[in-house]
Automatic annotation (TrEMBL):
Residues 178-221 form the Threonyl/alanyl tRNA synthetase SAD domain. SMART domains: tRNA_SAD. Its cofactor is Zn(2+). GO terms for biological process: tRNA aminoacylation. This is Alanyl-tRNA editing protein. Keywords: Metal-binding, Zinc. It comes from the Bacteria. It comes from Fervidobacterium thailandense. GO terms for molecular function: aminoacyl-tRNA deacylase activity; aminoacyl-tRNA ligase activity; ATP binding; metal ion binding.
Amino acid sequence: MKIPERYLDPTVEIREVKRTDGKTILVATKCGLYPDGKGGQLGDRGKLNGATILRIFENGEETIVEVEGIVEPGVYKTEPDLSRRMDIAQQHTGQHILSAAFVHLAEIETVSFHMGEEYFTIDVDVPYIEPSVLKEVEDLANKVVQRDLVVEEILTTAEQVGNYNLRKPLSEKINGPVRLIKIGDFDVSACGGFHTDTTGQVGMIKIIGTEKVKGELTRVYAVSGLRALRYFQKYTDVLKELSKQLTASVDELLIRVRKLQEQARERGLLLSKLSEEYAQVLALKLRDESQEKLLYLEGYTEVGNFLVRYVDLNGRLLVFYDGSKYMFASKSYDVRLLVESLKQTYGGKGGGKADLANYQPDRPVRQEVFVELFNNLYQHVQEV
Ligand SMILES: [Zn+2]
């Protein structure tokens, strides 16, 4: 692994130990562990004198190490988690290769880079990338991996950097020593993170998604190394399960899902048609058999929606309950009065227009309540 010189010796010198909120905070004057977020990279984890390292961050000249466990001030040789270092190296090197592939193939430049625990992202300077271009870039990046090129670490200075063909010019603010990462004849970039010794150790680079960000940039999500394998394992598991549940081979899954969507749409239409017909029948029955001014009905929401259309609501108020919320409709009584009155006693939310409103109570409302409320609220109302 290509590890910057200052992190080769993982010795930590602790000047002070503080305990806050059940955490042990170590103030280190010298720290051979890589801090979180530095250069967009993940920080080291591992053990420090038996204590588990939780977080590492730079604070001016000193480094703060948060651990779980008891540690006294002193000098300690820590044990950084090497498989994590390798994972970080795979993501970093993978990112250099991917960013370089975007330049080689499509002159798309990387503006920024971020490494997360699940994937890494690069923001590139175009608002959209054709899927075919993404595929070509991914292919080229993986060919570079398969060429197993040597990854070199070159220590130079800002003054001498002009001797190298850097993918991205060095910021003018930087002076003094500069660390370059050279990947065969494919890429040279200034970088202070962990990298693999060869491109072959990156294993694989997989783009897993894109998203438009900040108006004019595209964020490319990708994984390398063992993370790429984990990604495929997860997706194959999901596909296998889907294929089992839908009794279709993976190749037939898309056709099967489209068929199911079509069926669901057809059934939805049929359900709507049946609900409408049922509402029409109910409305006829109510017209012929009931003289009540207040109609109380329970049933499916779909039926309720149609009932409002078909029941003669002149001189009547319809209360329809679908098991969770109420619908009130009338052409003669302002149903908002009913909603407001119910809210005062039963809480919940609701509202609407004078002739149609919805209401969802916090507590159950007994059916008799509507009769009482109707008589109280609308006794002086003249029927239209
Ligand atoms: Zn790097």
